[in-house]
Every structure is written in structure tokens, then in C-alpha cells.
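Notebook, p. 212. Picked up where the previous page left off. The plan for this session was modest: take the two constructs that came back from the sequencing core last week, fold each one, and keep the raw output in the notebook itself so nobody has to go hunting through shared drives later. Recording the first one now, exactly as returned: residue sequence, then the C-alpha cell string.
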Amino acid sequence: MKTLAIIGMGPRGLYALENLLTQLAKTNQAIEILVFEACELPGSGNVWNHNQPDTNWINITERALSGLKERPQINYNNILIDGFPSYHNWCDFSQTSEDPDQFPPRRKLGIYLNERFNSIAKALRAYDRFKVINSKIIAIELNENYTVKIESTKNTWLCNDVLLTVGHQPTKPSKQLEKWEAHVNTFHDLKLFNEPYPVTELDHIRNKEHIVIGIRGFGLAMIDVMRYLAVNNYGNFKVTDSSTLETVYYKTKEQNLKLVPFSLDGLPMGPKPLNENIDNWYKPNASQLDFIRNKIEAFTNTEKDANTIDFLIQPLAEIGAQIFEQLNNKAVDHSLNSDTLKSVILDFLSDADYSHHLIQNSNISTYNLIRSYVNMALGNTKISLDYCIWQVWRHCQPMLYKTISHAKLSNETMNKIIDLDERSKRFSYGPPLESLQQILALADAKVLDLDYTNNPDIKLTENGWELKNKANKTLVCDIMVNSVLDSPQLLKINSPLIVNLLKNELIQPVHTDLGIETQDDGYVVSDDKNKQVPIAILGRIVKGSVLGVDAILECFGKRVEDWADGYVKRLNS
């Protein structure tokens, strides 16, 4: 009997297991399945761990989680595995198109995912060929007979195939963080937190008085850190207007807490629209999505790759121009014809520094920039072209991820596409509107200082981190939290497992700045084209072979289904 090891049982590993069992049931085949998960909550993993605080919010609307479909009943090896409800049915989701979109805490989704996994584990508990092993794998080796040896710090296992779905992996610290670490080792009164999660690591500073905390990064993780530090024994948030989610931060007693976020460009994330009605302003219809898809496929299927992304941005610009024009008086006033508007969008997508009167001026105060985007999300002010285009891009992302992943494009072209998708994430992966209202509320309460967001000069002193902004204003932080999450650059990852795979030449990067190269079914690409390495990898560390590896709904997508189908076909070959 063949043995398969699944290393990593977060959402992607869960969906892989479900599809594996479904495909095996169709062919009446049985295998031994070893599931390895270091976290004690299989299905949810660390990111969706349901023991985390409610201040960690998901950044996708609960409405959009309709993509977490029900699991049908599975009859595997004469064992009946009951079906499991969709997320919406599980939580009795209900919302009108005019209600503000809901963004639940991450732990809520984690409970769903863990229960969904447990429903499988419970059904298979009497099947001695299914084992869940709470262990961290640190090494994988390929034996001469093409069996695979898996190692933890204490044990080894042999299997015929491995599926790796380990998600986020740590990378080598930047030179800046290395310098900061050395500094706090010299001045022991200072404190540096190298990772934003788990935010509970901040517990012992959360309720201190008279502290100034710098936060490196100005994205989603910064918001989680900010919210956890602000919701404490001294104060909390209160929504004062349910129709706009306008918020105040009230203090029960004085703490003298100051939070100081900063990043390389200082640009805040843009909130998602308030509700479904407003969100639909930016939603391409089926024919518009087909137009973009067909243009992309016409190029990737027939053209020789010329290291250009014109085949992507030209149809997007055409549809984006149509949608912006449909906004009519909701959009920033202009007299441009359709061709000129499309040209402006192309310039904008091609150049991050491109400026135009239709594009929101980012050279204003951070507070006013956030306020402007909040009003756009509410539909209370004229919509800028950049806000519109990135919302259109967000609606296109599922189609783009499916169409472009594993397309026959050069590494350079794929890198350009990924760079553009990363640029979009200020808006396409933007936070809930209420999160931005909380930022404004904390700024109004003089708790959040937005004067240093744009790449301040940083001087290390015995008192901490001295920040100096463009106006030569200075401030000293005695605590620093790094909220910048590592990008999935394979050659910078320093986890023992990935280092071991590289050392044994079992994986290779698709590009020096990206992740592992894989085939359509997730199996790794070997240097030796005649050698089939029995290792498949899904998720964040294959960025470059596939697009859109960070989205929760992509964990339940076609690439996982393709792996399960491919694995079962390989059993019969």
C-alpha cells in the first residue's frame, strides 16, 4: 500500500485532504495517509488559530466567504465521512446589500476550519492507515529507491509521496533588524518584537503607562498590532455612526500610550467599500471578465513571451475605463474620451509614480489621505481613478489567479505580474472600513502618531529608536514592533525544512526573487527532466509558479483540486 505524507494541515492542507479522499473514493483505492501538523489545531493552523484574540480581523468580507463551499459526503474505503456545511450555512450568515459588510475575527473562521477537519478525523479514527501526528518536520530526503524519508527532531517516517502545504516560512532577518537586535542586546531596557504574531506576545507591555511604541510597517499586521495594544485596561473603541462606522476611541483613564507606525513609502491601505451595493459599482460583468480572460489566453496560448505584461494591462485598462465612466457623477470630474482614459490607466498600471488629476494625490497628510479613501469607500465623495482601478482589479483577481498560474510565461514576465499584483494589495487586500475609522479615531485621541509614517530617519540611541521625519521633527521609541511579514523569497527562507530541501537539490526557485518552481499538479520541477521527484508543494512558497497564493479562498481553489487529481492518476500510472 502506498503512503502519502501531508506536511502542514492549515486550510490548504485541509482542502487537499478532502479532495484526495474524494478522488480516491471514485477509484476505490486506499492508501496510508500521514498528516503532520505542528499546531495543535489542524485545519486552522497558526494564522486561523481560534485561540487568538478577537482584535485580529479577517480582511475579506464575510459575504465573500461564500467561496467556502460545503463538502459533500465521502465514502472512502467503506468508511462514511459525513458532509460538512458551507461557511455561510455553518454560521447562519445573513446580510442585506445595504448593510455594512462584516469582517469577522480570524478565530471565528479558525473554529470552522478546525471543526471541518475534525469531522474527517473522527470518521477515520478507526482506520489505522490514517494518522495525525503533532510534530514539526525539519528534513526531507529522497532515497535511492525513490521513497522519501521524513524527519522530525525525534522520529523518522518513510513514504512514497509528500505534499507540502506549510504556508508562511521565516526568512533571514534584514540588515536593519539584525542591527536592531544587536542594539537591544546592548541596551537591555529596550525591547524589540521581531514578529507581529502572535500579538499576545505584547501582553506584558499592553497595559504599561508612559510608553512610546514604534511599529515597523503600515499594513494589515500593523492594524492588528495597533488594535490589540489600544484595546486595553485604559481605553477602547466605540462606533458612533452605524451607517458610516465612524468611531471614537474613549479612555477610561490616562495611559499616555503613543503608537508610531512607519513604512518605506508611508502610504496607508485603502479600505474596501462599505457594503455590497457600493462594491458592485466596481464589479465587472461576466462579458467583461470573459473579455479580459480571452485576451490573456490568446497571448499565453499562442504568442512567444516577449517579457511584457501588455497582454494583461491592456484589457484591464479597457474594462477599467468602462467601469470608471459608468460611475458618472460619482467619479472625479473629467472630460477625457474613452481612449484617453484607457491611456491614463495604462500609464498608471505601468508606473507606480505616475501622477494625474484623476489619481488621488498622496502628497497630503496621512490623516487626510486616509480620510479621503474612507469617504470613497462610503460613496460620500468623488471616486479617484486609482481607487476604482484597484477595486476592479480585486474583482478580477480570482480569474487572473486561475488564468495566469502555470501559464507559459518567462520568469521575468511572471515577476512583473506579481509585482503589479503586490502593488494592488494596498487596496485589493485592503482592510475593513472600520479599521481605517479606528486609525482616524486613535489619531484624534492623540494615541496614534501619523507624523512619521513616510520612511523616517532612524537613529539608534541608548534611549531607543530616534525617528526624524521630513519636517525634522523627532520622537524616541523605547519599544519597537516589526509588523512587516516576510515575502516568500525561496533563497531567503531559513526554516530548517526548506534549507534542507534546497541543500538536497529537491527544489529550485522559479526566479531568484520568488518561490519554488512546480508543475500544474503541484509537483516540483527537477533539474533532471527524466526524474520525477515525488514531492508536491502548494501555497505561499511556490509564488512565481502560481499567482495569488496568499488569499484564503485560494486555499480552497483549483490548484489544490489539480494536485489531488494528479496524485490519484499517478497511483495508476
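Okay, moving on. Second construct, recorded in the same format:
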Amino acid sequence: MKKIIQCLCISVPLVACGGGGGGSTDTPRLPPQVKTDYSNLKQSKLEPGPLKQVTATDLTDMVKNGLRISLRDNQNFNELARTATLSGDKASLANGSKTSGDFSGTNVQVENVDEADVVKYDGRYIFAATPVNYTDAGPKAELKIFATNPATATSTSVSTTAIDTTYWGDISDLYLVSDASATSGLVTIRRSMNFMYFAKTLNAADGPTPDVPETRAAQESKAAAIVAGDDKRLIMPQDMDRGVEISLYDVRTPASPSKAWTVTLDGDLLASRKIGNTLYLVTSFVPAIPDLRYGVSNKEELTANENLIASTPVEKLLPNYAINGGADQPLNKESCLVSANAKANEGYLNLINITTIDLSKQKLVNSVCINTNVEGVYSSLNNLYLGGSDPAKWQDWSSFSVIHQFKYTDTGVSYVASGGVEGILGWGEPSYRMDEYKDALRVITTRYGDKGEPTHQLNVLQKVAGKSELAVVAQLPNKTQPEAIGKPREDIYAVRFNGDRAFVVTFERKDPLYVLDLADTKNPKIAGQLEIPCFSTFLRPIGKDFVFSLGNETDAEGRQAGVKVALYDVRDITKPVQVSSQVFGDAGSWSEALYDYHALSFLQRGDDQLRVTLPMVLYKTDIGKDFWNYTWLNTGLHMFEVNGLVNGKASLDYVGNLISESSTTAEYPSWSGSDRSLLHDNAVFYVHDSKVNGSFWPVKK
């Protein structure tokens, strides 16, 4: 029974070896005297220099040193796993708008670089993943398809597909796959974390099971038996196998979608992007050995730990993948990229993989491994950038970040260069702090002083000819442009690049909107700023002349009030002006779009009008001397127009709403999942509570 416990407790590939892996599978010979003194080992540093490809032997040493360091510092598996995730709930969210014809698509940061979401629309069908619903029979999740009729602003349910949540849970992300004429496939992404349990055997006489490779399907079957109660063991909720499942459904007949292909990857999903029908996944894998004992000090237990580390074959410490539930195969056919300055006595327990999948051919193209940490992922049409910060530097508040560039090729991604900058990429949306324009990468970072006060800096990097180096060619502030980005103690709440300009919102009690002039790559400067009482978390340029913003109104003390949408005129970048604004609700009011920008939808209607929709949950707040009373009003979709774009006399106009629930019919809002909206011609489709509400676009009076 021990075999299954290991499988469920840590990670499937640790007990299922799939040939290859780039190194020998023979059990290493132990030295005559086992060394258990790990005091000379050091955690690998994040280095601003280039990466190098190492052999499987060198990688084995680094990974095993990482395990030894984790034992020395008493870091258990769950702690290590948590350090491998990105800051914020999502690696990167939407910031632009991709549209096709006269309907809105997923709100994305870079046009033609698609991003995953729980709702997708192709102009004919809405594809929606429902959030998991815990019932007496267990967790329940579904995939729903609705047909739309824009002429009547109505939708019809076409099919509902139950998702087996025994092992993988609900669907976290969707992508569409297209052939020459229409949508042919739907990609679903699921993560096993939070939906598995590991069991402790109640009968020690069961003893260990032979160390025999198992298929993922066999492991899932055993997991299902344990959860269902067929296996007589104690079920304990814990962090689970950090796996990712990517499934491709054939939806050419939407009434009967069928699963055509599945690939599973070991590790946790950090980010994904899709260009054309090629999917790119960034995952993090933390190697572990199930029987290692942490927090021990006697010689016998220390020796047992070292024997386990030394005798574990490398393929059990590297991530695998499986196709259609088949045998595990090594994710990295070659070795791994590490810092060129890596030393023999260093180690790091985090393997990042960039995996390329050809969805048209249903094929895993390749996977590139990097032994580093990642806090931000940004993609242009041509390159993928991974950014990470040095955690060791927090002690003296002199942190810095390293960015690695990978080029998209016909055979996956290939490493290009690395560079370092002062500061970190921020707490919220690190992808927005990076932007590729022409031959430069622009990055905005933040450094924190010993009292926590932030200092912000723009960095411009360019690749050095003939070297794997991204060099800093310009910074702001600098000696000739000393003005700070942000007032004292103000942190960054939003960043948006737009060609040769950038917009930065900082906030403590008021909201300065900074406009940066980046026309001269090596001489950036602050062109102008606007200071008003509010803060923005999302900025979207409308051409070069205007900027739409979403955020919160604030009171005189800087406390959050209602949801605020605004329009800024930036034709004169030295004097940005707020054209108009709307505030909805009181303190406590919020919008999902404040935290997940896929909840915003945009549709350009001719040259003169842009339509915008976003969901809101509105509250009325009574503030007394010693109390705040919050009263929920309603939940619904709100609709706006930006008019007058042609003549430069633009205005932001509120045109109406589509209320899904209110305090007149319910005591509390449902909090039922991700609200999304789709705009098609003059029709509006509002996805709320796994249902689709339709309406015509209001006629402005």
C-alpha cells in the first residue's frame, strides 16, 4: 500500500519513471562513508548573466543538492511548492481587446496573443466552464455550450458535458482551436491541486509495494478508489499532486462534444499563451522524495535521508508527461538551462518548463527546462519573457530581477538572452510591467526601502550583438531626468505601455497618472502627470489619443469608495486631462474586472465608438463614528460607450445595465463564479451563474 501513498502524497512521476530523461538510470553507488554534513551547500543565486545548458549529471547534482538544502533548512514539500507559484492569482491577465468581425473576444494584453479564460466566444457559440459545485454526491463541474442569435439577442443551450472531478477538479482555462473556416476544437486546462487527497494506511502490515512504473490512468484509478471509499484507508485533505491536464475536445458538432486528445504534465501551471493553434505552457515542478524525513537530527535518520537522495535515479526527480493516459515520458529530452555561474556546491528545487503543443497536430512539440524561479510571464508575438526576483535580497532591501528571453520558433522556443534590473516586478500583474517594442524590452520595477517605502524605475533593455545578454541601455529616473515616478510612499497600481508611451498609476491617497515619453529609446522621460483622488487598476489605450481606466474612487483619507470608470485625453502628453468619469456604489462595491481583466469586454463599432461592458456588485454604505454598515444593492452588467473618437471630442457615456440579481429578490449576492460578457453587433450576452442572459444594446437617450 505504500506505493499508492507515495503517489498521492507528493507527485505521480516520483514513482513512475518513463525512460530517457537525459541521464543514466542505474542506481548510483553510495560512498563508503555517508556524508550528512550539508553546511557547505548553498542555494543557487538568481544571476543576471546568461544561462548555459548542463548535462544530466550536473542537473542531478543540482537537484539533489536542492533536496539536501531543504533538509538542512527543514523546508517541507508544501513550503517549497508554495514558493514555486507566481504572485497574484493569475500570471497574466487581459489588457487589450481582441475582436473578430463584429463581436468581442477575450480581453488580452497583446493583440493576436491569446490568453486563457473560463468563457470563450467564436461568434456562433459561447463555451463556458462552470465553477466547481460541492454537492452531497461530491464536487460537480460542467462544460456548457450555448448557441447565440445576435439578431434576437437570445441564446440556446446546445450541450452540457459533465466533467469528472475525481482527480483533476474543474476547468480553470479554455482556448479555441480553429480550422480554415470555423472552430473545430476546444482546449480545457485543469489542475489537480485542491482536488486530490492522500491517504495514510491504517494497517502497517500492508507493507510497501514493489517500485513498479504505473501509467497515469492506473494512478488515477487508485486515487478514485480511495476517494470513493473502496480502499479502506483514512482520507486526509492535503496539498496534492501538482499536475496539469490539457484536453482537446472536438466541437465541430457542438451538441455532442467529444474528447479527442489529452496530455498531462507534472508540475503546477504558472501561465499559458496561444498563438495561432500553438499552445505554450509555463509550469513549475518541485522535485521531492516521499520518504525523506524533515526535522531529524540523529545520525541514523540523517544517514537514511542521504542514502535515499543518493540512490534515487534522476528520472524520478524530473517531470514527465503522458498522452491519452499512457505511459509517462520525460518532459525534457535534453538537459536543463541553469545560470552560467552555477557552482558545484549549489542547488535549487524548482524546475520551470516551457512546453510547446501543436493543437492542430495534437502533438507535444518540445519542452525547455530552466532551473530558476519565475514571478512574471510576458509574451509578445515573437518572444516569451520569464522574470524572477532574488528572494535572498529582501534582507537588505536591495532586490533585483532577472529576465530571460525565449524566441518562438517552428520547433518550440529557443533561449536568446538574459538580463538583470534593480527591483521587483510587483505584487499584482508582473506581465504588465514588461513590454516589447521594436528592438527593446521596457520593464518597470520597484525597490523597497528599509521602512517599506517604494521607489519605481523604468528600465530599457536591448540584446547585445553576439552575446546572450540583455543590457540596460536606459533608465528613468536618471541624472538628466531625476523626477521620481510616484510621490513618496506611493506604490504602483497599474501600468500600460502603448508604443512610444507608457502610463503608470501610483497611489497612496491620491492617484497620479504619469505619462512617460519613450520615443527616444535611450532617453526616456516623464512627459506629464495628472493628480486626482482615486486609483486605477486597469488602463486601456484607445488609439494614441485617449485612455480608458477602471479602478476605485477614494475619500479624502485615501479609503476605497465606489467603482470608478474614467476616460483620459492624452493628446498632449504633457497635460493629460480627465474627460469624464462615472462612480458606482459606495465602499464595498467591487467589480471582478478589478482583479481579473478578462471580465472586461470591448467592441469597436466603426471609427467613432468603442463599447465597453463590465460586471459590478454594488453596495450602499452607512458610515458612523464607530461603525460601517454595508447593504448589498444588486449585481449586474454595466454598459458604456466612448463616443466622439473621430473629431477628438470623446466622451465616456453610461448607457445602461443588465441586472442579474438584487436585494429585492435575494438577501445576498450569489457569488456563483466568473461573470463574463460578449458583445455581438447590437446584442449583449451576459454569462452569470452558469447561465446566459441576452439583451439588446441600449439606445443612448
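Notes on construct two before I forget. The radius of gyration is 26 Å.
Flagging for discussion at group meeting.
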